[in-house]
Specification:
Blueprint (H helix, E strand, L loop, with lengths): L1 H22 L5 H19 L4 E5 L4 E4 H27 L4 H17 L4 H19 L6 H10 L5
Antiparallel strand pairs: 1-2
Helix pairs in contact: 1-2, 3-4, 3-5, 4-5, 5-6
């Protein structure tokens, strides 16, 4: 409650000062309009000061911390879903081309959410091996063959 009182009081005082200057012809109407908007902006900033993460007046950009947190949560969720889809791709049957398209889409998603290239490679390693094996089993390296055979072992 205190924050809103301080914000409204500050904006009102600034607006009163600018109105006084306008009445006494110390500023013009265009300046008054700009200063009136600034007084409202000051009140807004005072009220939301704890939640503002960034203010960039050159680019007219205001970023709230909650917005950043939501974006981070969305990226974490998208990454988790990409990992699940990549794992499902490893165990799925079907055409090599469909598996490749699925793996390519998972990779695009991981790129879009800025997942580290090494982590991206780790997530897609086994799905890409299975994709390669479906196209041509002979093209797998001995290490890749061991990983591919491990997918279908019935032991834990």
């Amino acid at each position: 409650m205190k924050k809103i009182i301080v914000a409204i009081t500050t904006s009102t005082l600034l607006l009163s000062l600018f109105t006084f200057l306008l009445i006494h012809k110390d500023i013009g109407t265009l300046s008054y309009s700009s200063l009136a908007v600034v007084s409202l902006l000051v009140g807004f900033v005072i009220y939301f000061k704890d939640e503002i993460g960034e203010i960039d007046l050159k680019k007219m950009k205001l970023v709230l911390r909650k917005t950043q947190k939501v974006g981070d949560n969305v990226n974490k969720t998208a990454k988790s879903l990409a990992e699940i889809i990549a794992n499902l791709s490893t165990y799925s049957s079907g055409s090599w081309l469909n598996r490749k398209k699925l793996n390519d889409e998972v990779e695009k998603l991981l790129i879009n959410i800025d997942v580290d290239p090494n982590e991206r490679k780790e997530i897609l390693d086994l799905p890409r091996i299975m994709e390669k094996g479906m196209k041509d089993m002979k093209s797998l390296t001995p290490e890749e063959k061991v990983k591919a055979e491990g997918v279908f072992k019935l032991q834990e």
